[in-house]
Amino acid sequence: MLDAIKSLFETAPVLAWSIVGVLAALVVIATMWEKVKWWWMNTWMSFPLIGKIARYSKDTNRAYGHENWLKSERALCMEYKQFVRVISEHDYNEKVEYLVLAGDNGRGLMPGSLWPLIILMVFVEAMGFSYVLAGFTIPGASENVQQYGAYGIAFLISGLLIFLTHYAGQELYRNSKINEARSEWQQAGRERELKSATVPLSKPQNVDQDYPDYTRRINRIGSSIASYKMSIGTAIFVAVIAIGATYVRGQVLEKMVAEETVAQKSSIESNAGGSDGLDMSDIQLPAADQASDNQAQFKAVNDNASNDLKGGWGTFIILAFIFAGLQALGVFFGFKWGFAGQNSNQAYRAIGSGKFGSYEEILHYYNHVADVAQSKLEELQQRVMEYISREGTSNIQAGKHTFRQFMQDEREAQAKDREHQLSQKHSSRQPAPSPRVESKVEGDDQPLSLDSAMSQINALESKEDKKAYINTLPESLKAEVMHALKQAKDAQQAKAAKMNEELDGLL
User: Fold this and answer.
1) How confident is the model over 390-415, as pLDDT tens digits?
2) How distant, in Å, are the alpha carbons of 29, 116, 120 from that of 113?
3) Average pLDDT for 276-292
4) Average pLDDT over residues 87-95
5) What is the mean pLDDT of the chain?
6) Rounded to whole angstroms, how far apart are CA atoms 488 and 465?
7) Using CA atoms, how far apart are residues 110 and 463, in angstroms rounded to an integer?
8) Fewer CB atoms near the end CB (10 Å): N or C, the chain?
């Protein structure tokens, strides 16, 4: 492969460097894909004659289900909606709290620019011994076939190593968080359970707020026992490859040195017997001197062979350590990037994949996208009006809507859909009084009182429904309800203790 690349640069340098330039451009585009996508959409949106605004401006049909909007207006807004992350501040805080409780706050995914580097490094290292292995896996094959076999073996080995080392590192990080939680649990005297229940991202993150931090972390990791199956398997695989490849390389080296040594000794013996075609009858050396000279040459050949073997084995051992170090680097990358929580990856992506450090930054980015989208929408509305004036259509108007109004309508529609789904879910679980209660009584301006809230809670049978109802209350009323429930619980416990004392006295 390297010979083919070298030959391409020598025979067609322009083509070779063009390929290198295209590959470099693809890497840059892949690394900065979001920015490239944003630039391209804005450019194509306002492109003369064949751009999207130029084509949308000729569509004056009404949008189905949104009669006050034109289809072209909504189509343009939908194009820009994909760049806006529709998330409320409450949802954002829920995702951040999940990451904090899982111990994953501040972490992220492995940068895309590192993947090509680690893949290339592992593939080059695998090529170093896959060519040797190809001679044994494809015995009797031609040199060309063995080269293709070496590429295939290198691809298989490097793919396995990248997968195993990366996930081994993630397993080690996850186990470190589990071990930290277990250590805190043991230091606390094991008074509370280490794991109460798995808390996914879809649940409110305050459902286990009464438990200590180590329990809440385990609830999001999903397991309280550290497992090292992937790490042990990876270590065994790397050791087998390193030792096996070194052994095969050594055997091939010893075979080559032995063959070269035999050839050199045969040449010495042939030269001593005059078999090279020269007439040496006039300059024959004494037998003792001839034997001594042959022994000296044999010793030099043996010494050279021994040095070659020592140097070769030393090189192979160093390469084995380099190979093991490269795999350790892959494990380190897996440990440094990744998450311990079961849904931390989803939470990380939901808040922008590390792009935003706070909700204010999300709002700032939203305002930027909204301003650009509004300018494009106004350009479209102006062209639509020009098209209408040319066509003589007077019953169609454009320019009354904004991009922010479109996003507000989309959020309201999503909220209604979610509310409808929740109401169907609760009605299917419990047909009798629904846990969903309005914050105000119908026809009355007075807010919900503590007595009304307690009566609603007492009417519910399921513990999950009671928790869901309490979470719908205002914060001030919620605190009063929690305090009242705690007092009721303490009173029940005191009553039970008094009864036990009375029973003990009677007995």
Assistant:
1) 776 655 566 678 899 888 888 788 77
2) 11, 6, 12
3) 54
4) 88
5) 80
6) 19
7) 41
8) C
Beta bridge partner(s), residue 440: 447
d(Cα 263, Cα 257) in Å, to the nearest integer? 10
Q: What pLDDT shows up at residue 439?
A: 40
Q: How far is CA 80 from the centre of its chain?
A: 26
For 441, the 3-state DSSP assignment is coil
pTM above 0.90, yes or no: no
**Smallest Cα–Cα separation from 113: which of 27, 222, 241, 242?**
27
* Whole-angstrom distance, CA of residue 354 vs CA of residue 106: 8
**What is the DSSP annotation of 38-67?**
HHHHHHHHT-TTTSHHHHHTT--PEETTEE
As a whole number of angstroms, the distance between CA 414 and CA 412 comes to: 5
pLDDT at 67: 67
Residues 6+ apart with CB under 8 A from 328: none
Q: What is the 3-state secondary structure (H, E, C) of 97-111?
A: HHHHHHCCCCCCCCC
Structure tokens at 363: 């709002």
**H or E element, residue 297:** helix 287-336
Q: Are 369 and 38 in contact (CB under 8 A)?
A: no
Backbone angles phi, psi at 67, to 5 degrees: -65, -25
Residues 92 and 351: beta-carbon distance below 8 Å: yes
If one counts every other C-beta atom within 10 angstroms of the C-beta of residue 273, the result is 10
Q: Which of 330, 329, 348, 332 is nearest to 340 (CA)?
A: 348
- The Cα–Cα gap between 23 and 44 comes to 24
In this prediction, residue 215 carries a pLDDT of 94
| Position 62 confidence tier, pLDDT thresholds 50, 70, 90 | confident
Question: pLDDT by residue (tens digit) across 158-168?
Answer: 889 999 999 99
pLDDT band at 273 (very low <50, low <70, confident <90, very high): low
Give pairs for 309-312: CB < 8 Å, separation 24+.
309/253, 309/254, 309/257, 312/249, 312/250, 312/253, 312/257
Residue 278: pLDDT band (50, 70, 90) is: very low
Contact in structure between 353 and 85 (CB atoms under 8 Å): no
154 token code pair: 């290198």
Per-residue pLDDT of 168-185, as tens digits, reads 999 999 999 999 999 999
Cβ(334)–Cβ(167) under 8 Å?
Answer: yes
Cα 156 to Cα 131: distance, rounded to the nearest angstrom = 13
How far apart are the C-alpha atoms of 311 and 276, rounded to whole Å? 33
Alpha-carbon span 463 to 450, nearest angstrom: 19
Under 8 Å CB-to-CB from 255, ≥6 apart: which residues? none
Place of tokens 């295209």: 22
- CA atoms within 13 Å, Cβ hemisphere of 33: 7
> Which segment, 101-110, 398-407, 485-494, is predicted with the most confidence on average?
101-110
Please check whether residue 477 is in contact with residue 485, taking contact to mean a CB–CB distance below 8 angstroms: no
Q: Are 38 and 368 in contact (CB under 8 A)?
A: no
